[in-house]
Amino acid sequence: MMNKQLAFVKSGLGLALCFLLVGAGNTPPLYAANTEVSVNQQARTVTGTVKDAKGETLLGVNVVVKGTTNGTITDLDGKYSLEVPSNAILEFSYIGYVTQAVPVTGRVMDIVMKEDARNLDEVVVVGYGTQAKKDITGSVAVVDTKDLLASSGSSATQQLQGKAAGVYIGQNGSPGASTMVRIRGINTVNDNGPLYVIDGVSTRNQNLSSLNPNDIESMQVLKDASAAAIYGAQAANGVILITTKKGTQSGQPKLTYDGYFGIQKTGKKYDVLNSTDRLNLEWEAKANNYAINGVNKLPSHVQFGTGAKPVIPNYLTQAGAGGSQNIDPNTYSYPGNTMVPFSNTDWWDEVDRVAPMQNHQVGLSGGTDKGQYNLSANYFDQRGTVIESYYTRYQVRANSSFNVRPWLRFGENLTYAWTKDQGLTSSGAEDNPYSWTYRASPYVPVYDIKGNFAGSKIAGTGNFQNVVAQQKRNADNYYTNSRIFGNLWGEIDFMKGLTFRTNFGMDYTSAYQYRMSKKNLEFSETRGTNDLFEQSTFNFRWVWTNTLAFDTKFGEDHSLKVLLGTEAIRDGLGRGLSGQRYGYLYENNTDTWVLSMGVNDLTRVNNSWYNGEFALFGMFGRADYAYQDKYLATVIVRRDGVSRFSKSNRYGTFPSVSLGWRISEEDFMENTQDWLDDLKLRVGYGQTGNAEVPRATNFAYEFSTDPRTTGYDLGGTNGTTYTGYKLNRFGNEDTKWESTDMFNVGLDATFLNGKFTAGVEWYTKKTSDMLVQASYSALAGEAAKPYINFGDMKNKGVDVTFNYRDNAGDWSWDLGLNLSHYKNEVVRLAEADDASFWGAGARISGNITRTTKGHPISEFYGYKVVGFYESEADLAASPIPLGVADRASIKPNAWIGKFKFADVNNDGKVTTADRTFIGSPHPDLIAGLNATVTYKNFDFTMFWYSTIGNDLFNNNKYFTDFWLFEGNRSSTMRDKSWKAGADNSNAVLPVLDYGDSYSGTNSNSYYVENASFLRLKNVVLGYTFPKAMLQKATISNLRVYLQAENILTITGYSGLDPEYTNASLNADSGNDLRRGIDMGGWPSTMRFLFGVNFAF
Amino acid sequence: MKHNLIAIFGFATLLTFGSCGEDFLYKAPQGSIDQNALQNATGVELVVANAYANLTENGWGATPFNWTFGGMYGGDANKGSDPGDQSVLNEMEMYNTASTNGYLNEKWVWTYKGSKRVSIAMQIIAATTDMDAALKEVRMGELYFLRAMFYFESVKIFGPFIPYIDETFTENDPKVHNDKDIYPNILADVDAAIAKLPATQPEVGRANVWAAKALKAKILMQKGDMTAAKPILKDVIENGKTSNGLKYGLEDNLNNNWSALTENGKESIFAVQFSNDAQNNGNSGMSLCYPHNSGPGGCCGFYQPSYELANSFKVDANGLPLLDNSYRNGTSVSYVNPSSAKDAPISLNSNDPVDPRLDFAIGRYGIPYKDWGLPKNDWVRNPVNGGIFLPKKHVYSVAEKEAGQTAIHDGWAPGSTMNLQYLSLRDCILMYAECLANDGDLKGAMDLVNQIRTRAALPANIIKNAAGQPAANYKISTYPQNHAAFTDKATCIKAVRMERKLELAMEGQRWFDLQRWGGSVMATELKAYVDFEKQYIPKFAAASYLQAARTMFPVPDGQIQTMGNDESGKPYLVQPEPWK
């Protein structure tokens, strides 16, 4: 085997060769010589001002002598000055405006630019280049950056929600929350996160919070294979292209400030009881339990005595007060004998708060035709609605580009971001701060009678953590991330239409954290000790892309663009290191928080690990051909090799073809021209690949050691173990690319000079040779199963967009509606037809979701509740209840009033075979409506978002609606439980029975709820100060606005937030196998903001 | 222009050949090594240690100390804790187990995990050439021993019709039907272990030949083959010694078997060596089984001894067990305190005479709990659900805690370095007594029982209160020669079985004993248990009676699905008849 370093050098050299060969072939000023401007005998200077229809001056308008490169741009006051030959024609162009060609008639030429509502010539970034919108044949969603920025949020992916058809975003309200992005359904059981390409540098890091949304110039989503195939290997889940703001040729620097400040608050709380109702409920359930079981006993509780009614003692104690009124508070001692008064604690209110949020961004941009720059700095601070939680980001960016010669350009984009929080627990889980609010006993106050934290050490109150104590103790914990992301590029024009570009990008991330888990002596299951954990990790990725672009026309009718390129990627260059020690004597003194201050005994732990190196090399080509601007064709081929697979399976080739027909350009459409601006039919087919398995070397069998699982104390010392090695991972040499075939048909139309635009797209895609973790049986042992190619998955869907904009008088409006629908189906998963992937919830026995053939990924699976066993007669007439061996063994009292599960297979008894599909987390429709209305200087924006037809599995109800642990209970349990002899037509829960471990234990349809919702996500009211007023101070723009978010939600879902999608929003492999299990978490927050946009 | 063409050509060449290639795209696995690197003397030690590590790498369902399947299911204890906590255990303790129960799957998975570790180690030994041949044999013997034990654990739970995989299977995902009785395979393994293992080992944690013989006897007993087990047990009891060379004998002080400070003594035939060097090596399988709140361990309050077990320790006026089951009549040895006033203990104790081992096996209010003083009310998590008794044997003492012999499981639950004896001399003695009783050697059997009782009566084993007096009305004596057990075979068998229940209480053995004594014995005993228990813990009123045919648990549902069907469409795994 070749020395690794040498191999690296060699491969590096190979790559360098790609660049050098091209560079060496170039002798400088060929192109420039061809187009040298001859000095005209009758040259003269033309000056003028360019304004828009409203009379406001336009900055940066291109002014060029037609047919030459002689040109300039307008300055801050819209003025230009250009030396022109006689008989010249001046071309004025500006993005978003109709290009005008005006013959030179005098020395002063003032121009009024007309807005181009059709936007057909708008240039859109596509893979490794740009394309005019009208020429696009694939499926590309162009996101309006203004719409995007209208919402607040720490990352652009949060703001993307509802802004593009076919893109499904999941998020929550925790500070700096991560986001789940799914493009057109779900492709695989593995990683479904899209590829992000930022300024030409690809990254799979799904955490975009280190990218400041205000830096984004444009955002495009490549949805179908014919658009995305150029990113071949990594494009199966779609591609999101982000271009950051570049400098301008304004000459004079432009200083901008954008900022907002506001507050966030939660809406709905968990529906739980006050102390008295909670206590009475328990008494009733305990009494019923005795009655049901035929025991002649009275309910009892260590604090409230034994009797027909509970007796509230003067203090609740650690040992149990037994209803005593004579507890002597002087016997208090901490931590051994604490006491609290019987309280009515609303734990939600104790831990929830109104939290401020602010964002400040300063930008400086400018430049000349020789060089441009854009600098920005950002401070974002979001306090969480849970006390002591926060997320803060500091970020700077420097983008610049230089035209060294007209044929030679260089540039760079670079951003550095540093974020900090105190260790947020944003995932949906039973130990999320908000989950503790229902798991805690309302009897116990936050503080005991001496001001120490109180908790479940008070006997009979279960095993809850005092969440206020937890948050306060964690306040000084330190979690940071830093990220450097950027690229350096060079471009050279060999001749007209032939451009070579090289682009080297890097993505360096590092994370550093330490946290003290302080003693929690008020907790009934306290460890009684503390520990400090410290961890540092880093990762480096680089991407080197080289492309050659050729653009030409043959005659009048044929235009051809060809792009050839190579790309090399290295990733996973990084390691991690962690250490942990226990027994800190001064846990509250943060100055003692270093590992060496902990006890040096056998409990100390240290670890280090590799991230797992990854390499990719790709070659690609793309050809865009147009005939008469009417018939369009794009062909793409990409061939990629990745290091994850064995040598023989390393490469995959991904082709695509797409065709476009601009029907409106046909002669027979001439009659429609007065109302139809553009009509285009697009058809595309392509293949993309996926190699994203969470293993760097899937082909190899790997042995490793881990003291927790492989060490054994053969020597009998009690304090050491002999080291063991185990087969940790199976390998598979045969594993190859997962590929997705996608067919897309789209129809785009623009009417009435751009007033209406509409698009409909229909797609079907099939993922085959899906990379699934082999489902070996237990007989294979413990080693992690290799990823193999098995299984197919299908997605079908429709994306619809509709836009209407117009103006009348001082009014103008812009309405955008986007609708998406997808249908996901697993076609094949393994040899065995009913082989499945399963997903578990919190505390519920067995699994909740099932992914199997013929169903979408992650459907809810369990018993179907069909009512209650109403009476002994009903019981006798019903199938034998779950788990009971035969009819003779049924004890009627134990079953009357309990859930009756459906006997799906009609064999006369309810068994595990009667579990069935009870709901689906996938919406039938995802809709976003963006509306902007402006009147004079006022602007008003509204954004509605809705999903329809999706269910959630409300796992929290296991804690609040059944007798799991001793936490709080819901009003549903109080008001809607089945009662013997009562009218039970409204009952949804079984008879109150303290010993009932049947009803909630297994996954059943009681937990499944329709989670369709319509939410007013955003309302903004803005006022822009009149230009005239500002001009004296040479301020070019000043706008202030008020904003409110998430202020109205219409839903039938009983949980906190119907917007819930995945418990963990990260793109980790396998998260989609547990879609829609609501295990608690951080709800979307209402926000009220005041903001300013300022440009100087 | 010419230069440009060269450039384009050069670029195109690069594209075509992709020379930026092979080395760039090969990445060796990081942070691991491959099997070849382990095929040497050092590697063998590493993979053998790993096979042993399966003994400590297990969860609540997989632990070979079987507090769930052996203890709870056999009526020694109930689940404890809150009703909903680990609610899947409720269906087991109510005898309504579903094949989806995760505890079943855990045990199944553990067995095959261990089996695979053994297979890999055997394959590596076979490929190793630089190792001392004799040592190779010893290591092979240890591996055979471990494999026999891993499979035996599943056979006790699922019955002998389960797949058997050994080192000759080289495919990643073996497919085998569960249509063969694997007792012969396990016995062949244990015979191979006996043939290869030495009498002593340099490390006390390794199995020796005597451990293998004891295991063989235990397997044969479970299989119901007392004839074959009997001579082996005799041999073990008379001639056996520990891996570190101690001749087998009963400890005088019972506590010596249940303390990290005195472990690996003469009574321990094969113990699982727990350690606190890493978070999960301190008996994580029993991390839930500690008293709650301010109690030792301060965790989860599971595995609370049953009323039925506690009352079994009642004795007659002569200090002998009540073999007529009359212990189920009258006042319970402990009962809920009618006063729930402040400072009133949860329960009170009757003054009826009891076997002193009651308070050794079971924590009771008013009786010193090891060296922790009297139990506090909050040690029981939820008396309504779990009753009034506390687990005790495996819970560490203050002395052990102060000596640093505690551990942490997964950063939250308690653990201990206290070894637990998978095979012990007391167990072998009582099994041998069964064999003798079965063959009609009633005196021989009762002499062994009396040996056990004599030890239990030693002063060291009488728990004293703060005043230095016996903490309860303890009474224990040996069976006199004129007792019916010396003359009547049925009584003798009863006495031996009762002794086993008392001596091995809370050691995770009970259900396996009931099971091997036969379906009808099991069904009768467990019916009596449920009927007795429901007088005190109402939830048992809803319990089913376990059917006599269900002497095994169902095969885990998920495994049946994952294995699928063979080419002829026949499922690889089939539920045993009583569970169909």
UniProtKB/TrEMBL annotation, chain A:
Signal peptide positions on this chain: 1-32
One Pfam short name: Plug
Localisation per UniProt entry: Cell outer membrane
Residues in TonB-dependent receptor plug domain copies: 133-239
Cellular component, GO annotation: cell outer membrane
Main location: membrane
Keyword Signal attached: yes
Domain named TonB-dependent receptor-like beta-barrel: residues: 429-1047
Keyword annotations from UniProtKB, A to Z: Cell outer membrane, Membrane, Signal, TonB box, Transmembrane, Transmembrane beta strand, Transport
Keyword Transmembrane among record annotations: yes
Topology in the lipid bilayer: Multi-pass membrane protein
NCBIfam families assigned to the protein according to its UniProt record, in alphabetical order: OMP_RagA_SusC (TIGR04056), SusC_RagA_signa (TIGR04057)
Similarity field: Belongs to the TonB-dependent receptor family.
Name of the featured protein: TonB-linked outer membrane protein, SusC/RagA family
From TrEMBL, chain B:
Cell compartments where the protein resides: Cell outer membrane
InterPro entries: SusD-like_N, SusD_RagB_dom, TPR-like_helical_dom_sf
UniProt entry keywords in alphabetical sequence: Cell outer membrane, Membrane, Signal
Pfam families noted in UniProt: SusD-like_3, SusD_RagB
Region (Disordered): 561-580
Source organism superkingdom: Bacteria
Domain RagB/SusD: 266-564
Membrane listed as a keyword: yes
SUPFAM superfamilies: TPR-like
Cellular-component GO terms for this entry: cell outer membrane
Span of domain SusD-like N-terminal: 95-219
Family per record: Belongs to the SusD family.
Protein name: Starch-binding associating with outer membrane
Organism: Parabacteroides chartae
Organismal lineage: Bacteria, Pseudomonadati, Bacteroidota, Bacteroidia, Bacteroidales
